[in-house]
Structures are given as structure tokens and as C-alpha cells.
Amino acid sequence: MKTNAKITIGQKPDQIPLTSAQATRLASLAKVDGEKLTGLTVADINSKYKWEIDPALLFFQKVCGKVVKRNPLTDELSPVPFATVHVEDTDCNLIGYFPAESPWSWFFPTGCHKETLSKVITDECGNFCVYIPRFEIDWILRWRKLRVCYPVIFERPRLRDILDKLEQEPPRIRWPFPQPDPGPLLRNGGLSLGYLKQFAGEKNIEKLCILQSSMQLGDSTDEVNQVLDTVAFARPVPPPLQVEMRQLCDQKNIVEMALKMDISDSIVRNFDHRYFIGPFNRCHDIYLPEWQSITDVPDITFKVTQDVDGDGDEEVIYSEGFFDIRWNDTNIPDVVLEASQIALESIDCNPLAELPCGTPEIVLAGKMPLHNEPGSVPPYIDNGYSKRVNRPHPNGLSTQVIAANLASATSPLAGYFPLYGCNQYDGAKYYRLRYVHTPENSITPLAKKTFDVHSWNLYRWVGHLEVTLVTGDSNGWYQILDPADGWMPANLLLNWPSYLYTDGLYEIEMELANSSKAVIHTTSSVKVRIDNSRPQPRITGLRWTKTGEANWLDVSLNCPVIQRPKNTAIDIQVDYESSADNLRSMKFWGQGCGTGGQLQLVSSVDTVDWWHRNAADNYEAKTATYRLASSMLPGAYGFHLSAHSSAFNPVKSEGLATDWYVNLGPIWSNAELRVSVVDV
Questions:
Q1: What is the residue range of 599's domain?
Q2: Average pLDDT of 306-322?
Q3: Could you tell me if residue 146 is inside a domain?
Q4: Are β-strands 553-554 and 536-546 bridged in parallel, bridged antiparallel, or unpaired?
Q5: Could you say which of 496, 530, 564 is where a domain stops?
């Protein structure tokens, strides 16, 4: 790859000299001599050609984003700190693959030319912002506008695209049984959860269902929009190439492949079926050949590097950045670049001020205080339970507004989160954390133990990325670091994978030792309740009757079929229940594929919406009744139940922003019932 050696990190965007390719593009748009522009900065051009070039071409578009790494076990995304994001001017030759039976298309790069436009370093939370010359974006948009359907086929489908498309027409895949529907946000009643999970993955779709079912008036839609704007396919999906074509490629049979593609040998020579980009939206307005060569496709791409092995040289952690951004969007959403597994991720982005380290103590779990402030301030924590997160609703409905500053919750913690604290003490060189565990539903504490040995990386930026691995010895002792050294996150005592530990109450203390690892001080203990278990939602009964009649007919839950009289309205009752050690809430809804409207809830709202009323409210059973109008067609109908635990991860910044008076529900389970309605 050719790079521009004149670019330095942090350089003002209007002070970066134009490359020859940039100069050619700007000259073509502005109708000036390109040779005169090469090597000039935008500031120079703006001054020298002020009334010859449209000033709008010399503006900049700010594009922000985040570099993340996916945890292969939990599927959570962690920030990648202090990585270099390279913004690249890219021209590629592509072979497009448009299989007739698929709604998607794929591209195979056969040669790309790249020039680096700018570089920026991500912060400790993986965030970055770059400035793209406006004329670069205009060049891409104009190139696509002049070619039939190219604005479409170079768009990676987002989840909202899938939803919009399925709202207009039924999915191409026909299921042999009806599927349930996730609620009003997914507007088409016939849309199945199973179908969507093929594109965005189970966790994204379940998260979307939970978000739409738990939102209240005035809630922010940022998190919903973030999910909807993610790339629809959770992982790259290989194109449906015929076995014969893959074999020809492996055999490097260029002549035969060129004949089948109807593309010249010289282009097909660089074709590799394993190196693909996609899937993408495809054009349906015109006939497309199955294979098509596309030359000199312009785009602005990203490459990310990071010094992952500490040798002073940065390794590539993200490079497949083709068509990451829809340049024609009015408001360009933040781009998320998912780095490879070799990337170094951050434990936590901790924006808190310095901890008040007057004496050694364990201070925070994630971002939540483990000590209550004196006086009349409502407590953060009591007997290990958070008192502010997921507070009970006395009326049993999720919509109840709880008085400000009321701390009445009994919510445990869950997930992977850090413990922060102060370990500076005269003569202390080492520390370790020990705990007494009382299992859930027990009152008998077990013997005191030392935490298992865990390891984590700390970072600092000193003109380049420096990394230190923190790990304990066989007895759980960790070296005490000097706060002046600037390692981040600061004051980290333990990165605790609580899901590897048994649920229950943990009374945690910190021991400080001298250079011989003899204990010289022990802190007072803090209490933390852990519950990583999932709720158990169940649909337990199904029956129906003609509307207005009382003779309910039971229906088996094994492949249920309701045989309704034709042109007759019927009522459907569903029994359901949920239980958990710490059950927060339940949501239930029913939808279907009928064109005469949606299933109508005829029972009261409290039959489909429930929120725990007190700490002992860990089981609830409900019966909901829906009406199927006579105008609604026979077909697939479904019922969906979601149950939330009150346990939460204290790393979430939402809690910090609201001083922990917030509803957080990262642990949930779903139950589904699929019902076929046939006319007899």
C-alpha cells in the first residue's frame, strides 16, 4: 500500500497536502488544472483559488466512531485504546457476484490502490473522530450517481433496512411453522424472530425486543437507534458460490472461470473466492448478470493498527473497511470498527475523578460506589444489594414513576466488572483480595478464600502505546503500582469475571503486605451480591373460544393449532409465568400475520406488563387474553414472553449518568409460543 509520508497524527485537516489522486478528483469537480493542486493543502487552495472553486468542496465532514473488540465468550464489545486509525483514499477493481436466487450481492477485490489521507489515535475508550474532505465524499457520490444502481449495491444492509423491507413484503424464506413476533417496534406482525436472527444474531434481536418492550414515554431512543444502525449481518456471510466455481478457483483454472463469468482472463486472474466483501444490498430495478466486473470503484476506507506485542511496531487489527460508511446519509451515524482478536482491549472507560485515597479501601464496583455517603443521602448499597438500580414498583407495572431519590431496590451485580480502590500504605508492596462467600438462599458463610488469580492489561500513552500485564502469584498477591506512573484504568484492584463464581453474598477485604509478603494491614470488608442466573419464563397454557362465549377449548402446547369457524372472531387466552432469584419484570405480547389488523389485547394491561413490587416478588403467573378479529386471515400467530433479572453490570455508564437511579436489565430470557390458526 502506498502511504503519504507527510501525514502526521494530530495534524490539522486543512494543513495536509493533497495527494495526486486527491488533486485529480478535486480538479475534475472544480474544473481546474489538477497539476497545480498537487501538494497544496486545503488552506492553500482556499486562499489561492477562493473564487474559482466552490467553497463547499473545501469543507470537511466530521466522522466519528469507535474501535472495539468482541469477547468470544460473552459476545460483548470492549473498547480498543490507543490504536491508530488510518483514513484511506481507495480505488478498487471488483468482481460483483449477483446470484439470482439471493436478495444480496457480494464483491471480490481483484486489485486496490490506497493512499492514506489522515491518521488519528483512539482514546482510552476506543473513540476517534476524523475529518474527511468534502470533495472526496462528493466524488464518491457523483461516481455512484452516474451509474445505474451503484448507490444501492455498495450499501451494507443495516438492521433497519431489513425491518423496512420486511414491512413492505413478506420474507423470502417460508417457514414450515409460524413464528412469534417481537412487538410494535418490529411493525410487521408476520415478521419472525427466527428470520431476523439470521441477519443480526440472536443477541442483537433479543436486545432490540427488550428495548422496545421496556421503553417508556420520554426515554432516550439512542440505544434503539444504535442497534438499528448496526450492520445487519453479525458476521460476514460467504456467497452461495457453486461447488464447481470454488473448485476452478482452487485449481487456478483461469480460462474456465473467465468463460463462466464472461469476464476477461486478465481480471479473473486475481479472483479468489475466499477473499470476499459482503453481503450488500442489491439492485432489483434492472437485470444484472450473475458476474460483473466493476473498475476503479472509489471509497474512503479505514485501517486500524496497534502495537499489540510491545515491539514498537504496530500490527494491523482491522483492514476490511470497504464501504463502512453510507456517505449519502444526511446524518452519518458513528462507525463501529470491530478489531481482530489480537487487539488489546480496555477493561473499563473510567471518567471518574481521582478516588479519595486517604486510607486503603475497596471503593467502587465498576462505576458504582460500595460505600454510602454519610448523613441523609439515600444509600447506594445495603448488605451487598444496590439500593438505587431497578427499584420495585408498588403498583406492579413497569410504567409507574418512582419518586426521585428513593432508594428501595435490592438488586445484585452481575457480569464482568472491575473493583477499584486505594492500596497505598506505608511499607506496603503487595495486595490481595479475600472474600467470605454466603451462597444464594443460604445464611451460612463459607470459609474465607483468596480470589482466583486473574490477569489484565493496563495502558498508558507516552507518545506511543505502553502495556503492562498485571497478574498475581499463586497466593493471589499483586504488586502495588505507583499512581504517578499513569497506568489506566487507575486504581484497578481486580478485573472480576463474577460469572465464574457462585452466586450469593461476597464480603471482600483487601490485605496489604510488605516486600516479604507478610500482611501489615487489612481493610474493612465491603459486601457485594452476585447473581448471574437467568430468569425462567414459561408459557404454561393455551385455550380459545368464540368471542362472547364462555366454553373455552384447551389447545396442546405441542405444535398448537386453533381451528376457528370461518369469518368468526375468536378470543385466545395464554397462561404464562416467570421465576428467578431476583426477578425484576416481565413483558408479554402477541402478534401475527393477518392483514385485518393486529391481535387485540382484551384483558387488562396488568396481564401483559409486570414489575416486581418488593424483594420477595420472585415468581409471578399471569393470563392474557387476545382477540382475533373475523377479518384477520388464517396463518401464523405468535406470543412472546420476556423476563428480566434485577441483576445488572455496574460498568454501564447509564448508571453513572443518573447517579444509579436507573433501570438496567442486561440479563433476560425469552419464551415463545407459535400458533397456527386455520379456518374450518
A1: 536-679
A2: 88
A3: no
A4: antiparallel
A5: 530
Res 228 pLDDT > 80: no
Q: What integer pLDDT is reported at residue 207 of this predicted model?
A: 65
Check: CB of residue 85 under 8 Å from CB of residue 117: no
Q: Cα–Cα–Cα angle for 335, 340, 343, nearest 5°?
A: 95
pLDDT level of residue 352 (50, 70, 90 thresholds): low
Domain C-terminal end among 530, 559, 587: 530
Asked whether residue 662 falls in the same domain as residue 632, the answer is yes
Same domain, yes or no: 479 and 609: no
What domain count does the chain have?
Answer: 3
Residue 33 confidence (pLDDT): 80
Specify whether the CB–CB gap between 438 and 444 falls below 8 A: yes
- Same domain, yes or no: 503 and 562: no
For 382-394, write each residue's pLDDT tens digit. 999 999 999 999 9
Tell me the three cell numbers of residue 529. 451480591
Angle (CA) 297-300-304 rounded to 5° is 125
Q: Of 119, 121, 120, which Cα lies nearest the Cα of 82?
A: 121
What's the pLDDT score for residue 211? 61
Q: Which of 67, 13, 1, 83 is nearest to 461 (CA)?
A: 83
* Residue 458 CA from chain centroid, whole number: 24
Give me 38's grid cell: 498537487
Query: What would the pLDDT profile of 18-42 be if each residue is shown by its tens digit?
Result: 888 888 888 888 888 878 888 888 8
Q: How many CB atoms lie within 10 A of CB 438?
A: 17
| Cα angle 591, 589, 211; round to 5 | 110
> What percent of the chain has pLDDT above 90?
47
Same-domain check for residues 461 and 566: no
Phi, psi dihedrals of residue 590, rounded to the nearest 5° = -135, 140
Q: Is residue 236 part of a domain?
A: no
What are the Cα distances from residue 52, in Å, to 22, 56, 61?
17, 12, 21
Contacts with 4 (C-beta within 8 Å, 6 or more apart), sequence order = 16, 17, 19, 115, 116, 117
Distance from C-alpha of 611 to C-alpha of 672, rounded to nearest angstrom: 20
Classify 26 as helix, strand or coil: helix
DSSP-derived pairing of the beta strands 668-679 and 561-564: parallel
Q: Assess if residue 367 is contained within a domain.
A: yes
Domain assignment present for residue 35? The answer is yes
Same domain, 555 and 500: no
Question: Same domain, yes or no, for 446 and 565?
Answer: no
What pTM was estimated for this model as a whole?
0.82
